[in-house]
Amino acid sequence: MDGKVDWSELPIELWPKIGKSLENHIDVVRFRSVCESCRSSIPPSLPNSPSFPMEIPHPINQSRDTFLKRATVYVIEPSDGASKLEPLAPSSKGWLIKVEESRNHPLTLLSPISDRKIMYPDGTSSPMLWNLLDYRVNELCKSYSIHCRGRFSSAVSKVVFFPNSPWFGAEESVACCIFLEGKLGFMKYGDDKWTLVDDKNFFYDDVIVFKGQFYVTDKWGTISWVDTSSLKLVQFSPPLCGFGNKKHLLESCGSLYVVDRFFESEPPRRRNYLGPANRDAAVEYFKVHKLDEEWGTWVDVKNLGDRAFVLGNSCSFSVKANELTGYQGNCIYFTDIFDVRVYNLDDRSIVAIDFDPCIDKSTMCSKNSWVRVGI
Fold first, then answer.
1. CA-CA distance, 295 to 255, in Å (whole number)?
2. I need a surface site. Which of 23, 65, 201, 372 has the fewest CB within 10 A?
3. What does the pLDDT look like over 265-283, one tens digit per residue?
4. Is the CB of residue 231 less than 8 Å from the CB of residue 264?
5. Who contacts 370 (Cβ-Cβ below 8 Å, separation ≥6)?
6. Which of 36-50, 92-106, 239-253, 284-298 has the lowest mean pLDDT?
7. Arithmetic mean of pLDDT, 45-74
8. Rounded distance between C-alpha atoms, residue 281 and residue 146, angstroms
């Protein structure tokens, strides 16, 4: 007996249940493009789902017009095994890109590491066009950034937002941020100001969304989660007691990692660098630690295998390097005073990257190139 079932024969009442189990916008688009029955079974999103840029209160100056912007990191893979993304990714491997949304303008392509716009030679950031039927497009993660009218807000170092599903209304959403001085801020949709969490302390380094909750790490590597109903912190891990200058918190393959960033003792400066002395200082090396949740202990990680960690300006994540153009396993990609660089855990070497590793530098520099990385 043939065990195969024609998917088109599924009962019509199952289509909405299947569609609304999809949490990512790109999966919803893909589902609705299958056939007329799929498209009519679910809308693209709820009418009151979050829309970006979203107007929010400024973390410090309430009189300034402030917006929360959202970008999504995608892995794009050619379905036929041959890349049609040249000159961006002349390879059969996948391509990593970040897409920023806007209601009134075309989608903007960004570098996943530096958040720089990928621009055409004429200086515009018009997006590429491609047929999604030719590619597999998988959402890797989302990132958020706070902008004042005409410029990025320097009041916060990191902001996260939850939930980001098309099936939740904006009124159910909340945001959490790390102020530059290390304080932890919280805001519900519709609030007219940010509320400080654990307001007596100012030693928080990073915040992420993990398993549907906000998780933060302090400068000692202690991870806590935020109880959004009481605005209390619940300790989740023992202190790491790492002696680095900055802790990065990220998820990889279902586990929590803290990457400890060590600065040079006297960081050199670029000639035109005007920022604070300790901001984006030159990196000397990193240490990687994995949280063993079962035993509640920290494990020193000496090798990431085929994974690569990306410590972006607005979000950190891990990728399977051997499936992506330009990325190497057991490496950490990051930005510091010297711009975009990569740290190799094998030999502890640091190498500068002039362009995003997914983009072929030789092609980008050619006279016939139609895209370049904006500076």
1. 13
2. 65
3. 754 444 334 344 445 589 9
4. no
5. 87, 120, 121
6. 92-106
7. 88
8. 22
Are 286 and 261 a contacting pair, CB within 8 Å? yes
Q: Is the peptide bond before 90 cis (omega within 30 degrees of 0)?
A: no
Residue 370 has a pLDDT of 33
CA distances from 226 to 141, 208, 209, 210, 229 (A): 20, 11, 10, 11, 9
Q: Which amino acid is at 190?
A: G
Beta bridge partners of 104: none
For residue 324, give both structure tokens.
């992506």
Backbone angles phi, psi at 153, to 5 degrees: -80, 130
- Over residues 337-369, the pLDDT tens digits come to 888 999 999 999 999 987 677 764 443 333 333
CA distance linking residue 179 with residue 186, whole number of Å: 11
Average of per-residue pLDDT values in the chain: 82
- Binned at pLDDT 50, 70 and 90, residue 69 comes out as very high
The dihedral over CA atoms of 108, 114, 120, 126, expressed in degrees to the nearest 10, equals 0
Q: What is the pLDDT of residues 126-139, one digit of tens each?
A: 445 556 667 788 89
Q: Which amino acid is at 38?
A: C
Distances (CA, A) of 47 to 43, 126, 135, 165, 168: 9, 28, 29, 12, 10
Residue reference for tokens 């790390």: 178
Which range scores top for mean pLDDT: 46-60, 163-177, 205-219? Answer: 205-219
